[in-house]
Design a protein that fits this description.
The complex is a heterodimer.
Chain A (H helix, E strand, L loop, with lengths): L2 E4 L2 E8 L6 E5 L10 H9 L3 E5 L16 H13 L6 E6 L1 H12 L6 E5 L7 H30 L2 H4 L6 H11 L2 H9 L18 E6 L7 H10 L3 E6 L6 H4 L1 H16 L8 E4 L9 E2 L18
Parallel strand pairs in A: 3-4, 3-5, 5-6, 6-7, 7-8, 8-9
Antiparallel strand pairs in A: 1-2, 2-4, 9-10
Helix pairs in contact in A: 1-10, 2-3, 4-6, 4-7
Chain B lengths: L15 H25 L9 H21 L8 H11 L11 H19 L15 H24 L8 H24 L8
Classes of the chains: A alpha/beta, B mainly alpha.
Pfam family, one (chain A): Hydrolase_4
Protein name (chain A): Pimeloyl-ACP methyl ester carboxylesterase
Organism (chain A): Bradyrhizobium huanghuaihaiense
């Protein structure tokens, strides 16, 4: 198990795929760990990418600072990891908390990235997200990691995914419960106490950017992704049908295919962000389609977009 | 070597030798905390935060009582020297940069309590097929759950505005305590054939 150094801390990472190939770096969400990208590793390596995953500082097998974790540290760790990849093209994807770290990296190191994929992501804390975040933190404090998982599972995954697992949810939760400690998760959540919105800096992101948002994501709903689409110059928003916040777990084959196609399009000069709104196919390999012209993609019912 | 306690007995219970050694370590750590909270507890409170000292003292005492009664004890002659090294480790360690003696003592105690409550996860040692009716199994789960609740007092104090000027010294002392507690806990587990996941 290889480790990177960040000051006195050790960061566990995995790097697989052909050296010299274009690289994908994938950043975990809050309660995740590196192994959850396993299906992406396999799919992207089969498409001739190199894949780097890691446990954030405070997560999984990486060191867990006892008292404070600053979000700047995650960006510094990511920079250190990307530094291991040589000079070739680097595509960066992150889910939720990891998407935020990826955005911050893209703002601070814009020249290094060939492409950016924020997934289930946000650049600012809306009142709803702030209050949900506070409630999740209270849940963690009062009920431990297991209770936080109990809250997140039904919020972030579909009935279709949950139904066959209802009688074995303990085993679904167990690895995440084992590798994540209450105090470390709490430190990660409390790194938002002095959070400043990234929105004013999004326009400085120069990398082609594919923003992925689950159709039914109510933890980070469409409006939060819309901020990214409007502000990031070379971006497109892709809506994942019938998906919730944790679609990277639930729809790994589809999402890995979208990641690979995005990077292939960028490298072939075919990518055109144009701040489009697209709808992803339901299965890997299908066509993306434009959001119906004239309709408002921020609504959950078909409402004509107001003329501007 | 496994990341979990066991192999379990035929009825799904944790082997008594493992129970004895795990409980001895936890008794030593939580017993030390109970003693130190008892010494820190004033006869009469004049500040609201002192009520938390009272809660911590009695919850630590509850953990001690629980372990004594829920464990299937067996004689273990290796425990003598091990317990002596544990007890030495729980003694207050000076913190550089905090001249105020009373404040330094409070920080030392909070640091030890943080390291024990955050760094030791006894329930994470239980294999999935451990007998849920075994009082030892229930005790480990309860201790881990209560530890995460107790920990909140230490987090609030150590991250609080009063200690902001000493943030680096407190963080460094806390990291040292965590490393020391983790080392002792890991050594104890390795002595009974358990290698923690992290």
């Amino acid at each position: 198990m290889p480790f990177l150094s960040h000051g006195s801390y050790r960061i566990r990472y995995e790097l697989e795929g052909p050296a010299g190939a274009p690289a994908y770096v994938l950043v975990n969400g809050l309660t995740q760990y590196s192994e959850l990208w396993g299906a992406y590793r396999d799919a992207l390596i089969a498409r001739h990418f190199r894949v780097a995953t890691f446990d954030l500082l405070g997560q999984g097998a990486s060191d867990k600072p006892a008292l404070f974790i600053n979000q700047d540290d995650h960006v510094a760790v990511l920079h250190r990891l990307i530094g291991e990849l040589g000079d070739g093209p680097v595509f960066l994807g992150g889910i939720s908390f990891g998407g935020l770290i990826a955005l911050r990296y893209a703002i601070e190191h814009r020249a290094r990235l060939s492409g950016l994929v924020p997934m289930s992501c946000f650049a600012e804390l809306s009142p709803q997200l702030l209050l949900i975040g506070n409630a999740l933190r209270t849940g963690l404090i009062l009920g431990g990691t297991g209770y936080l998982q109990d809250l997140l599972l039904p919020m972030n995954l579909s009935d279709q995914w949950l139904k066959p697992l209802l009688d074995k949810l303990d085993s679904v939760k167990r690895q995440g419960w084992l590798v994540n400690d209450v105090y470390a998760l709490q430190n990660l959540m409390e790194s938002f106490l002095d959070f400043k919105p990234l929105t004013p800096q999004l326009s400085s992101i120069t990398a082609p950017t594919m923003i992925l948002n689950g159709e039914f994501d109510f933890l980070t709903p469409r409006a939060l992704h819309e901020t990214l689409r409007v502000e990031i110059p070379d971006s497109a928003l892709v809506i994942i049908p019938k998906a919730y916040h944790a679609f990277t777990l639930e729809k790994a084959a589809l999402t890995a295919d979208l990641l690979a196609r995005f990077a292939e399009d960028v490298m072939a000069g075919r990518w055109q962000g144009n701040k489009q709104v697209l709808i992803a196919p339901e299965q890997a390999g299908g066509d993306l389609s434009p959001f119906p012209d004239g309709y408002d993609h921020l609504r959950a019912i078909p409402v004509q977009r107001a003329a501007t | 070597m496994s990341a979990f306690l066991g192999p379990l007995e035929a009825d799904g219970r944790v082997p008594p030798r493992q129970q004895s050694r795990v409980s001895a370590f936890l008794l030593s750590a939580h017993g030390a905390l109970a003693r130190q909270f008892a010494l820190a507890l004033p006869a009469k409170f004049d500040a609201a935060w002192q009520t938390e000292l009272n809660a911590q003292l009695y919850r630590e005492s509850e953990i001690v009582s629980l372990l004594m009664r829920a464990t299937t004890w067996v004689p273990d002659f290796a425990l003598g020297p091990m317990a002596a090294s544990w007890e030495m480790a729980w003694l207050p360690a000076p913190i550089e940069g905090i001249a105020d003696h009373v404040r330094a003592q409070a920080v030392q105690l909070a640091i030890l309590a943080h390291a024990v409550h955050a760094g030791i996860r006894p329930a994470a040692l239980l294999p999935t097929d451990a007998n849920a009716n075994d009082p030892f199994v229930t005790a480990l789960r309860r201790i881990e759950f209560e530890s995460s609740r107790l920990l909140q007092a230490q987090i609030l104090f150590l991250k609080g505005p009063d200690l902001l000027p000493f943030r680096d010294a407190v963080s460094a002392a806390l990291d040292r305590r965590h490393a020391e507690v983790r080392r002792l806990w890991n050594e104890t587990l390795e002595s009974i054939g358990v290698v923690p996941q992290q």
